[in-house]
């Protein structure tokens, strides 16, 4: 927990630097936190268009839009988004918009006890501990059975993971193991030779809610 102060206002932040109460957000907040997110020359109209799109979508639906939706609705390509938000989509654009990865699932149906029990029975004598959003609590519990089961739950056609899916999944896990931190969507696309449109086709549920979840990882 921490407190960010700017122009006479104070904002409570969680341990990852996200605003703890999205209702406390105002346009002073992004200006205050932008320098910490490698945005050194101030926020431009392009920044604000994305920020307002994220907040307006969350306000209407209770769900944070995926990186794919934000890019499509604002006419941005991956390299353009990276230039605007160098620390990533969740850890850059969404943080500026006052929406954390926890808020992004607030209005979605939480992972039920029945679903959790079904997941625990994926493989014989194998169990997985997941949080209320369905993310694996311990990355070391992950195996390919878990990934395949997750794929069936999502919008991946037939739940079939192709070589391209596995390339992304393996990169995520190897990068996390090496750096103890999730790679951002830009690095994942570059390492997998994908554009955002390609990644969306592979993981329609989103980068964090799709690829990262299937890889048994989560933002902390």
UniProtKB/TrEMBL annotation:
Q: Which PANTHER family match?
A: SULFURTRANSFERASE TUSE (PTHR37010)
What are the protein's GO molecular function terms? sulfur carrier activity
* Origin species: Candidatus Desulfatibia profunda
Its cellular-component GO annotations read: cytoplasm
> Is the keyword DNA-binding in the record?
no
The subcellular location is: Cytoplasm
Task: Give the similarity note.
Answer: Belongs to the DsrC/TusE family.
Identify the keywords attached in UniProt to this record, alphabetized: Cytoplasm
Q: Does the keyword Cytoplasm apply?
A: yes
Query: Mind telling me which Gene3D superfamilies this protein's record contains?
Result: 3.30.1420.10, DsrC-like protein, C-terminal domain
Biological processes, Gene Ontology terms:
tRNA wobble position uridine thiolation
Q: Per its record, how is this protein called by name?
A: TusE/DsrC/DsvC family sulfur relay protein
Q: Which Pfam families does the record associate with it?
A: DsrC (PF04358)
């Amino acid at each position: 927990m921490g407190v960010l102060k700017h122009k006479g206002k104070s904002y409570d932040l969680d341990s990852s630097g996200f605003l703890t109460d999205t209702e406390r957000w105002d346009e002073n907040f992004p200006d205050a936190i932008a320098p910490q997110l490698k945005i050194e020359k101030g926020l431009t109209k392009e920044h604000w268009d994305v920020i307002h799109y994220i907040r307006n979508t969350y306000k209407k639906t209770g769900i944070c839009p995926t990186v794919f939706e934000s890019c499509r609705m604002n006419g941005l390509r991956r390299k353009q988004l990276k230039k605007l938000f160098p620390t990533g989509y969740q850890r850059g654009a969404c943080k500026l918009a006052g929406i954390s990865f926890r808020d992004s699932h607030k209005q979605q149906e939480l992972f039920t006890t029945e679903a959790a029990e079904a997941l625990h029975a994926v493989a014989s004598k194998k169990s997985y501990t997941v949080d209320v959003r369905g993310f694996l609590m311990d990355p070391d519990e992950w195996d390919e059975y878990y990934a395949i089961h997750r794929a069936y739950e999502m919008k991946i056609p037939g739940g079939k993971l192709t070589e391209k899916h596995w390339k992304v999944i393996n990169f995520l896990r190897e990068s996390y193991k090496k750096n103890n931190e999730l790679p951002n969507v830009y690095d994942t696309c570059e390492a997998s030779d994908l554009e955002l449109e390609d990644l969306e086709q592979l993981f329609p549920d989103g980068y964090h809610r799709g690829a990262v979840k299937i890889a048994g990882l989560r933002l902390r």
